[in-house]
C-alpha cells in the first residue's frame, strides 16, 4: 500500500503519554489516526466530543481567577547563586530569575495513505482546523480519559506487530489461526489480496 509521511509537532509529554495508553491497547498513533481520519472523511465531522475532564467547582476557572479575562502563562522562578571573586575574597549574590515555562515540543511521524491525507486535510480546512490541531485535540481527549473516545471506530487490524506488543506465543497462535482458516477455505484467496494491494502502488 502506497503511503506518505505525515509530520506534525506536538507536546512531547503528551505524545509519550498517549503513545503509552495506545500501546496498552495494542494500537499505535498511526493505526488510531488512520481510523480517525477515515471516519472524518466518511462522516464529515469530528467524531468525538471536545471537553475538559470533570473538575471540582472550586477548581473551575472563573472571571475572578483570570487576569483581565485571560489566563496567565505559568511561570517558573529559579534561584541562582552568583559567586564573584574580588581580590581573593568571594561574595555571594542570590539572583531570582523568572520566566514563562515553555512546553517541550516533539515531532510525531506517521505513515498514511495519500488520498486519506488529502481528503482529511480538505475537510478539516472547511471546519477551520488543521491536521495538527485535530491530532492535538484527540490526543488531549485520550490523555483525559486514558482511552480512545468511544465514538471513534477502532481499527480492525493492529499495525504494530512486534515483540513489544505481542509475545512470540501470541504471534504464532495468530499465524496458526490464519493457516487453519486458509486450509478450510475461509478468507480471501491470496491472489485476490495481492491484486488489491497492487492497485495502491
UniProtKB/TrEMBL annotation:
Superkingdom: Bacteria
InterPro entries with a match to the protein in the record: Arc_rbn_hlx_hlx (IPR013321), RelB/DinJ (IPR007337)
Keywords linked to the UniProt accession: Toxin-antitoxin system
The protein's name: Addiction module antitoxin, RelB/DinJ family
Gene3D superfamilies (alphabetical): Met repressor-like (1.10.1220.10)
Transmembrane segments annotated in the record for this chain: none
Species whose genome carries this gene: Veillonella dispar ATCC 17748
Family: Belongs to the RelB/DinJ antitoxin family.
Any Gene Ontology biological process: DNA-templated transcription
